[in-house]
Structures are given as structure tokens and as C-alpha cells.
Design goal:
The complex is a heterodimer of chains A (about 110) and B (about 120). With about 110 residues, chain A is mainly β. In chain A, about 0% of the residues lie in helices and about 50% in strands. Classes of the chains: A mainly beta (about 110), B mainly beta (about 120).
């Protein structure tokens, strides 16, 4: 199975600052990579699919990049509602696999 | 609007089975795969398997092979996930989600396994 590794585990950022989250796949997943945001007590929410396409209703401050094995989620200017856990997921091969998550917390 | 509404919380004893439902609305149920994902408290997301509601074809993560069964009733646009031989480690929130790049999720169903 493809192992997804996210870094860092925790990211401390001040509101208004830029956040950069990384996700690495153990083998190529092409552009079949999604990013999700999850807040406590809620289901995950799709942010990005196809490595770089924002899902419906997702603000432009969220952007995704990369292909193959290296991917990045960037939040250009953190808002209070962006503090959450972020997961990457590959859907190029079964089994689908998730990274372990990056928690974005208030600095 | 697209919605996936799951059944309510369950408490089960070790060795028992649980069946979680996921009712879809706002789109053609047979047009998109349904995936099942679980999350233990404080832990990450774990993919369990998928089902094609049109054909009924399924694919399961190896970890759950032999214990999980995913089915559907197209007449009521509902998918089901049944997990058997429950153990304490199966205590988690179980989610259904539409498509592999999951654009819509159910609200989650807490399954507690405790003697």
C-alpha cells in the first residue's frame, strides 16, 4: 500500500500568516491527491482534489500543488476558522490511504 | 443539495456485529461510489473500503477482509456497512463519503464496543 507522510505534525502559525503543509507519497500517485480539513466533532471537508483544484466553495486562500510524490497545501493568510487538522489522501491506488494529519494551531 | 445521513450511535459487545446505514439524497445514488472511513478518538482517518452502488461491486482494505460487508438498497438510496466480530479497537466514528476524492461526507456514526 502507498504510505502518505505529512509534515510537520503540528504547525504553529499566527493569524494572517502563511501556512505551508507537506505531504509525501511512498510511490507516485500522479495528481490523484486530495486535501481535507477537519475540525473537532465534525466530518472532514474536502478542500483540494486533483492535487490543485479547489473544491466547491473553498476560499482562494487555499491552494494545492505538486504531483507524483511531493505535494503542498498552502493557506496564504490564516483566518481564525482555519485552525484545524489537515489530511492528505491518495486515491490513485487501492487501498486509499491518508496521511497522519497536520494540526494547524494558533501561535 | 447533496446529503449523506447516517444512522445513530451504537453500543455493541465484543464479538457482536454492527450495521451502519448511509442515506443519500440530492443526487443520483447510483452515479457515484460510496467509501467508508473510520476514525478512532484522537486518531487519523482510516479507509475501510468502497462500493459501487450501481453494480454492487465492492473493494475492502485488507485489514477488514472477512469482517466487513458493504451493501446497498438502490430503491431507498441507502448504503450499508456491516462490521462483524467487533473488538474494543473497533470503537470509532464511522463515516460514509461520496467518491474517492470525497466531496460529501455523512455526519458520522459512533460505534462503541464495550463489555
Amino acid at each position: 500500500e502507498i504510505v502518505m507522510t505529512q509534515s510537520p505534525a503540528t504547525l504553529s502559525v499566527s493569524p494572517g500568516e502563511r501556512a505551508t503543509l507537506s505531504c509525501r507519497a511512498s510511490q507516485s500517485v500522479s495528481s490523484n491527491l486530495a486535501w481535507y480539513q477537519q475540525k473537532p466533532g465534525q466530518a472532514p471537508r474536502l478542500l483540494i482534489y486533483g492535487a490543485s483544484t479547489r473544491a466547491t466553495g473553498i476560499p482562494a486562500r487555499f491552494s494545492g500543488s505538486g504531483s507524483g510524490t511531493e505535494f503542498t497545501l498552502t493557506i496564504s493568510s490564516l483566518q481564525s476558522e482555519d485552525f484545524a487538522v489537515y489530511y492528505c489522501q491518495q486515491y490513485n491506488n487501492w487501498p486509499l490511504t491518508f496521511g497522519q494529519g497536520t494540526k494547524v494551531e494558533i501561535k | 443539495q447533496v446529503q449523506l445521513v447516517q444512522s445513530g450511535a451504537e453500543v455493541k459487545k465484543p464479538g457482536a456485529s454492527v450495521k451502519v446505514s448511509c442515506k443519500a439524497s440530492g443526487y443520483t445514488f447510483t452515479s457515484y461510489d460510496i467509501n467508508w472511513v473510520r476514525q478512532a478518538t484522537g486518531q487519523g482517518l482510516e479507509w475501510m473500503g468502497w462500493m459501487n452502488p450501481n453494480s454492487g461491486n465492492t473493494g475492502y482494505a485488507q485489514k477488514f477482509q472477512g469482517r466487513v460487508t458493504m451493501t446497498r438498497n438502490t430503491s431507498i438510496s441507502t448504503a450499508y456497512m456491516e462490521l462483524s466480530s467487533l473488538r474494543s479497537e473497533d470503537t470509532a466514528v464511522y463515516y460514509c463519503a461520496r467518491k474517492s476524492d470525497s466531496d460529501y461526507w455523512g455526519q458520522g456514526t459512533l460505534v462503541t464496543v464495550s463489555s
